[in-house]
Design goal:
mainly alpha; 3 helices; 2 strands
């Protein structure tokens, strides 16, 4: 019984979040309630969470400070209390 109630609460909360977000996106687009198509809304959601994929070559370039970068690495400073320790 408790599991059914928990799943019901999760389902209702998810639907409420989606409805509120859909309403906010349609208002930002200047449309009335229900005028934003689900295809356009799904494109907005995908664009919101779309991040570039991290590949091994891209990760090594980030760790090396970029490709072809001869600049010295920037120091990392850790602040503890009133003193800072830069390495």
């Amino acid at each position: 019984m408790g599991l059914r109630k928990s799943l019901g609460i999760i389902a209702v909360c998810t639907q409420v979040v989606v409805v509120v977000d859909y309403n906010m996106q349609s208002q930002q687009a200047g449309l009335g309630p229900g005028e934003l198509s689900m295809k356009a809304y799904s494109a907005i959601v995908q664009a919101r969470y779309n991040t570039p994929a991290v590949t091994a070559s891209g990760l090594s370039a980030v760790q090396q400070g970029g490709q072809g970068s001869d600049a010295p690495p920037t120091p990392v400073c850790i602040r503890r209390g009133t003193s800072s320790n830069c390495q």
